[in-house]
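Practice problem: predict the structure.
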Amino acid sequence: MNTLAAPAPALRKDATVIGLVGLAHSISHFSQLLLAPLFPWLKDAFDVGYAELGLLMSIFFVVSCITQALSGFIVDRFGPRPILFAGLALLGLAAFGFSISTGWWMLAMFSVLAGIGNGVFHPVDFTLLNRKVHPSRLGHAFSVHGITGSLGWALAPAMLVPLTLAYSWRVALACAGVLAFTVLVVLWFNREKLALDAVAPAKAAAAQPVGGSLDFLQIPAVWMCFAFFFFYAMALSGVQAFAPEAARLLHEVPAQLAAICLTVYMVCSAGGMVVGGFLVTDPARCERIVGAGFGVAAAIALVLGFATIPALAVPVLFGAMGFAAGIAGPSRDLIVKRSAPDNATGRVYGVVYSGLDIGQAIAPLLFGTLMDLHRPAQVWLGIAVVQGVLIASAFNVRRVRRTVLVAA
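Answer:
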């Protein structure tokens, strides 16, 4: 059956679903940066180093990885809506927990809770988008999904740092908890719009891929996508956790200017995703778009790491790098969509996007150690190298997918 031939539902209906899913997704990304912008304050409050603070992010993403891989099966079995509500509630509880922590181990405990909450979002989000949005609008749906994630990342430092300066880091984290529960209330009142249509048993059985529920793990393209997201997460984590501080040390950037670099990166990344959503209307261009976007981003990372530039140029370069990486975002998600078998969306996205969590678990330890060794230029070199690997990974996905199609 050619789903593209089916009549598209009203734009308003699709837009509502995309908006609600995007709103939830923004809180997932916002919660991933609850601690990183506050590292300078947490370092003094708990008398720990950057490596120990990076370990908190590693704990968060290891737990999120395990949860994400498992939640894909749960979403396919019970539906995405209750899992989405549970994830938002856990993120809100974790934020309140961070705000009352009195030691590093309490931060670690609530990082586990936050990781469980974060792990459900990609299987939930992409199941809802793929099941409820018409295929002709999926490129734009993925674009909005990526944009809201980037805006969530941008909001975290923009909200938490001023609140910390005005009050304290505890107040800032408590406000983050209030925000998560506010979004949960909004989604609860719109819960009917997030319900999936019932599928008749015979139709559901016919849509199942041949073999068992784990047969999708035998698809080489799924693991190529997993590797792609692993390297993508390593680059992103380096930018989020330590790149602003590394740039500050290298180029004598004032602290106030360095604090806005990540927000500039994320806002510009969201703008890049808007452009990327239009470029990806032709799926055959996905890999080329990814290659061009991350090629430019890697070049800018090398400039930030090794060129002599004025302090005022640093946020501009952060913005340019974010825009280039953002253009690749919708193409990245469509690459996974094209590699997923029917009726296994939650499982495929759960496994593939667990690569994000593994990469984000490992990267803070590596980049944090480089920062403790006073090697900020090497942080930028590592980001550039990983972005280069991304280009090869994207084309590997296409090569493997084409090989399978020819063999079939």
